[in-house]
Amino acid sequence: MSIEFIGFIGNRNGSETIPFTGPVIDREHIRASAAIHEAGGFDRVLLAFHSHSPESLMVGQYAASVTSRLGFLLAHRPGFVAPTLAARQLATLDHLTDGRVAVHIITGAADAEMARDGDWLSKDERYARASEYIDILRLQWQAQEPFDYAGEYYRVSGARSDVQPRHLPVFFGGSSSAALAVAGKHADTYALWGETLEQVAETIAAVRAAAEPFGRSPRFSLSLRPILADTEEAAWAKADRLLARATALRKDGPGRHEMTGGSATPPNEGSRRLLAAAEQGSRLDQRLWTGMAKLTGAAGNSTSLVGTPDQVAEAMLEYHRIGIDTFLIRGFDPLEDAFVYGRDLIPRVRDLAAQRRFVAAE
Across the strands, what pairs with 223? Predict the structure, then answer.
């Protein structure tokens, strides 16, 4: 199966290295970002969800209205909307966009952030609830007759829907044992952050083992923040400048990730894994850079592949070789980096992958 590329559309411009300015929902930024990603050959873009942020489904509706081909991966948190209603909302958007929607189920890593929306369940309870939630999503999307469902967190009776998607992939992430169990049962694509090749291979094996009893074979998505330059030396110098800029900005006050639970002792296994990798060094597997993850407490996608476009493309294909078939890539300069990825990186990865498939077929 071909390699898929997912970008990222924020509600306004900003990152760990660029102060967030302007309106909270900047339509011109969303429009420009959508156009750059569509022209750059991205398959989808992620629209994120946080307890303090604009609602991803509504932003996705707007972004879809100004594009014609680009797909959307909508981050969605179970527990705040009835799963039957969420199923109809997502299916409706699937039809209105001619099948350009996927959903990323986000259970929520930090108890403190969940409490801001009135959710007091433990992390393991949230994963158990998410499993029931996805059960009902799929029933609502597929059932031809009214159905009942009786679980610990949800009960429905005689549920049905006039609108069902043609195909709406479910992405899922999480590194704890509770998360892996849910991923094995439900994930069409399992998403993980940019770890070392060894760590990624371990996670892929664990998810495949969890999926096997259900007869499922999920795809795998890896999130990275590529840093590109014309030479390797210039790329590493760029990484140093980005880290210095992010460090300086953090002195002015808490960053965006601290608002969602980032800390030196994060509550989620995924962040702890990234920080454990960072303790091994700032440069791993030759191109994997952990400097920003260490600075930010690894509260999100924060590791990078650093080098020339050809070098980074080769490194990405090493991940592809061990099972990664989707790359979620976003930069520290959201618009400029998305343009550069579409111009310089995505075509190289696809060309190299095609060459390797051709050689393997000979």
Answer: 193, 328
Task: Mark residue 107 as left, alpha or beta (left: phi above 0; alpha: psi -120 to 50; beta: remaining).
Answer: alpha
The pLDDT tens digits of the residues spanning 122-145 come to 999 999 999 999 999 999 999 999
Q: What is the pLDDT of residue 337?
A: 98
Distance CA 22, CA 189 (A): 34
Q: What is the pLDDT of residues 170-190, one digit of tens each?
A: 999 998 899 999 999 999 999
Q: Are 4 and 11 in contact (CB under 8 A)?
A: no
For the chain, the residue count is 362
Q: What is the pLDDT of residue 259?
A: 43
- For the record, the structure tokens of 145 come out as 């007759």
Q: Going from the N-terminus, what domains does the chain have, and what CATH number goes with each?
A: 4-361 (3.20.20.30)
Specify whether the CB–CB gap between 54 and 30 falls below 8 A: no
